[in-house]
Amino acid sequence: MYHYNDFDTAFLAERNAQFRAQVERRIDGSLTEDEFKPLRLMNGLYLQLHAYMLRVAIPYGTLNSAQMRKLAEIAERWDKGYGHFTTRQNIQYNWPKLRDVPDMLDALAEVGLHAIQTSGNTIRNVTADHFAGAAADEVEDPRPVAELLRQWSTDHPEFQFLPRKFKIAVSGSEVDRAVTKAHDIGLRMVRNDAGEPGFEVIVGGGLGRTPMIGKIITPFLPKADLLPYIEAIVSVYNLLGRRDNKYKARIKITVHENGIERIRELVEERFTAIKEQFAGFDQKLLSKLETSFAPPAFKTGNTKGFEAARLTNPAFASWSDTNLSAHKADGYAIVSISLKAHGATPGDATADQMRVMADLAETYGHDELRISHEQNVILPHVHKSDLPAIYAALRDAGLATANIGLVSDIIACPGMDYCALATARSIPIAQEIAERFDELKLEHDIGPLKIKISGCINACGHHHVGHIGILGLDRAGVENYQITLGGDGSEDAAIGERAGPGFSADEIIPAIERLVLGYLDLRDSADETFLQAYRRLGAAPFKAVLYPDQAKQNAA
Amino acid sequence: MPRAFTPKVVTANHLLEGDVIYQTATGWTRDLAQAEILEDEAHAELRLVEATQQRDVVVGAYLADMEPTDAGPKPKHFREAFRMRGPSNYSHGKQAEL
Predict the structure, then answer these.
(1) SS3 sequence, A50-79?
(2) What angle do CA B13, B14, B19 make, to 5 degrees?
(3) % of chain A residues with pLDDT over 90
């Protein structure tokens, strides 16, 4: 993985010193809150419902064990002993004190982490496929490109005051695990007819108030053109994007209002104008980065122990059925560690759990960890012979829940339990759904199903692309939950359709239960997933199970 | 006839701690029961201005609707109830500290 060079270290130290001085000036009264707020946001510091919140970027979701241990140390020393992993591959600390934040940032810098541009109208943390560098279906590891984008976008003088925030996601595989079609720019690595790797470039996707699936601006961009082309897109948006209305300021609206053809023309024009200025430096940098992301030295060995453990330990067999994915190296697997124990807060890990995961990565996983946008932790490179030991350690730490991709593997934003923007709570709804389906013991029969919950229209919980999406709203002073159906965050991305009137906090869990049990009756076989059944049958039979009274009236 | 004024308290976040605070007649409290209930609109506006001027103590002061009870002000909206109590997933915040 990438390690900071002297330039990165010096830059970060200077930036942290600046912020330390800004905090001091706020505390001594030299800066007003209006003056201080944009400065703290640039450094990831929010003021939320109950406390400050520090959002730390985990670039493209990649961590080593030392970084994970540092996250644990920070959680214990300056927070309440846990951290919250988010849908943008960040970690959030919910309880920092203003005076402590400069020390927290210095501690992060010790391991090459920062909170720069995790807020504000800038290019945010670049996210990537959480199986990057490991997935069997990968064209190339997307992380060198993601790191190139991180370096280019960090403190980029032209892009510090964009019309609105700007999110880039990169997938190294044609299978999209990075929700590239719901980002301002999505990059999906593909090969052209000559077999050369390049990118399908998607612009103008996004969720929130006006959900849009991104549009393809170019079906194949050679890797060598990537940085000038991305700079051209952001540059065109910077000039054309609306600053008169916050709700129309994202690039999805710019693309929608101007049309993809017009945007493409402008981007091509700008690209031609600036391409020469890059003078190949970006390519030199990229090839250096590719070296630092070289795959680890995979070991060889037999996997008989793994097979034997599967036969003798049903719990291990179940976990390995749901929580492992295909690795590109022989004898290896990708391990997804669920942060969704039934009844737990999605995405939360205690400091002790972080240390267990760091130790496992160091001992068995070539020192690598990933954070997924689905709020789980990944050990990307594990030899199958080590899986029984890993499973045992995870089980002892409460981290061996066998539910990846199932009904209780729910994405949920912090909602009104923490977030100042939220209109309703998300976390308790996620907890109750997971507990209910655990009681029913149906989770594995139900099969792949993505439930995603947001506590407001901004859609941090990606509800629009949930197979079942739940949106929490404030209806006349009461929490109310709207259901959307048929959303999909994959390469076949689709925005879910609203099912009908919302449900109260008491009604939403039974409603989800009716919906899922209804699916079990509607599917043509156990192999047909919820999403496939929905696509085959349409919304009507699902609405009928959600709103039985209405269905009865219609039948009468 | 003008609409009846809903009683209010001035609330904000503390600059250093970041947590929820409420204005009292003489200063600030973390306990909503101790907060000054404002039943007159003009007085409430005045108290908000006074709160906003304390820039080195409080952040984001505003007026929150309350119902006066014998036990003190009771939040009208669930958001204020959560601010008063803390998150529902852990016993953190005011519910653990007061």
Answers:
(1) CCEEEEEECHHHEEEHHHHHHHHHHHHHHC
(2) 65
(3) 98
Q: Which of A80, A96, A479 sits opposite B78 (nearest CB)?
A: A479
Strands A348-350 and A332-337: unpaired
Q: What's the pLDDT score for residue B17?
A: 97
* Interchain proximity B94–A479, CB inside 8 Å: no
Residue B3 pLDDT exceeds 90: no
Option in B20, B55, B89 nearest A431 (CB): B89
- Give the position of tokens 């241990």: A69
Distance CA A387, CA A366 (A): 14
Domains of chain A in start order, with CATH, are 6-110 (3.90.480.20), 142-292 (3.30.413.10), 322-396 (3.30.70.3340), 411-555 (3.30.413.10)
C-alpha–C-alpha distance, residues A386 and A381, integer Å: 11
**Inter-chain touch B19–A417, beta carbons under 8 Å:** no
Q: Which residue in A496, A534, A498 sits closest to A518, CA to CA?
A: A534
Q: Flag whether pLDDT at A473 surpasses 90.
A: yes
Listing DSSP states for B1-44 in one string gives -PPPPPPEEEEEEETTT--EEEE-SSSEES-GGGSPPB-SHHHH
SS3 A380: strand
- Between CA B92 and CA A532 the distance in angstroms is 42
Task: Give me the phi and psi of A142, to 5 degrees please.
Answer: -80, -5
CA distance B16 to chain A (A): 5
Do the beta carbons of residue A93 and residue A79 sit within 8 Å?
A: yes
ipTM value, please give it: 0.96
